Amino acid sequence: MSRTSHLRTAVVGTGHRAQSYTRDLAARPGHRVVALCDPSPTRMAFHNRLLTEAGEPPAATWEPERFTDLLATEGLDEVVVTTVDAAHAHYIVPALRAGCRVVTEKPMTVDADRCARILDTVRTTGNSLTVAFNYRFNPVHEKVRALLAGGAVGEVLSVHFEWLLDTRHGADYFRRWHREKRNSGGLMVHKASHHFDLVNWWLADRPEEVFGYGRLAFYGPEAGARHGLRRDYDHAHGAPAAADDPFALDLAADDTLRALYLEAEPDDGYHRDRNVFGGPVTIEDDMAVLVRYARGATMTYHLTAYSPWEGYRVMVNGSVGRLELEVEENRWQPPRAPLAAPPGDTAGGVRLTLRPLWKPPVDIPVTVEHEAHGGGDSRMLDALFGRHASPSTATERDGALALAVGLAANHCFETGRPVRVRDLVPGVE
């Protein structure tokens, strides 16, 4: 129970993604951001400007090393974790022990040991942990779940999920901290956890066995040289070799990126605009995975991080028919487009088709939104911080099951052998 008329919230990690939480909480009368925690004073100052622009008082700023002092001092009700993925557990566990409700960005964490610590802490404290899987709140995805739950294809027998990241969005994971697996768990953990959770949720089932292959086929120094794409620079700002590189990011050209990252470089030395064909890169950019679920269904999943267009195709095969979803988020990608650019003329569309056995196919009407993960962000924030709970909200168990598929896939990439989920991440069943 809050000690005041509003819930007191700390936001830990004040990068680009954290903006949605800072802005949303500042606009909600029942919440107040009272503390920010980040290694960069510059980034925290940016978020405090967001708060004051919304008519809220600035939050106290804390260094990560003093997080336990923050918990003891600020009288918190909630902690929102939006840090580098590998640091999530470092904040989730003590915040739960301090009695706070915790909301963490996906993925919940990046390895089995930290996952076990989080699950054990939730069990022993009884406190609430929510994983922010915004894809669950996209109206198109909600429609798919309703159709499957209603028996539209009968018993689900198999799923195929193809995800394509384009050369704007996909390349961005190779410019930042995500390019090192120790930080992000790779795209199987950081990005594909969205999709693994979505399929777990759609099927109301849990993954049991995983096999896959993955490699760095396009980005990184070796592949870049092989394909004739490599340029000789470390990070783009001020580098002549980056001036005409279509894969380079111009931080100075975007007010938000300049304020959050370029101006913050003296704080912690972090470069947001690394060369995607430079080193080191320890994650994969092309991955193929096979998953078997507890009730017998299988999923084939493929992630490509260097596509000319962005979107995904999902095919669900069942005992009485087939459901097909195609989402074209960007039909093509112009060179050097700013990260914050709206889809505009490059925007695609959504098609959802039900193909029953022995009957003509049926096009299912859907609501299409191009901003903020298909409208999922605003609906998720309402569910997380509004007055009414949502059955779509993901728990620590959901976070662990999505993580488990990605971790198992990573293990397969290294060993070439299939993995039983319960052997790699015990306790998620």
Helix content: 25-40%
The pLDDT mean sits at 94
Number of domains: 3
What structural category characterises the helix and strand content?
alpha/beta
The DSSP helix count reads 16
| CATH homologous superfamily label of the largest domain | Dihydrodipicolinate Reductase, domain 2
Please state how the strands of the largest beta sheet are arranged side by side. 14-13-12-11-7-10-9-8-16
Q: What does the radius of gyration come to? A: 21 Å
Report on the structure:
The chain is α/β, with parallel strands linked by helices and 429 residues long. It folds into 3 domains: 7-132, NAD(P)-binding Rossmann-like Domain (Rossmann fold), CATH 3.40.50; 135-219 and 281-373 and 395-424, 2-Layer Sandwich (Dihydrodipicolinate Reductase, domain 2), CATH 3.30.360; 221-268, no CATH class. The protein is built from 16 helices and 16 strands. It has helices spanning 18-26, 41-53, 67-73, 88-97, 112-125, 139-149, 169-172, 181-184, 187-190, 193-203, 221-226, 255-262, 265-268, 376-385, 396-415, 421-424, and strands at residues 7-12, 31-37, 60-62, 78-81, 101-105, 129-132, 156-166, 207-215, 286-293, 298-307, 310-318, 321-330, 350-356, 362-363, 394-395, 419-420. A 9-stranded mixed β-sheet has the order 14-13-12-11-7-10-9-8-16. A 7-stranded mixed β-sheet has the order 3-2-1-4-5-6-15, sandwiched between helices. Strand 11 (310-318) and strand 12 (321-330) form a beta hairpin. Helix 5 packs antiparallel against helix 15. It is globular, with a radius of gyration of 21 Å. The mean pLDDT is 94.
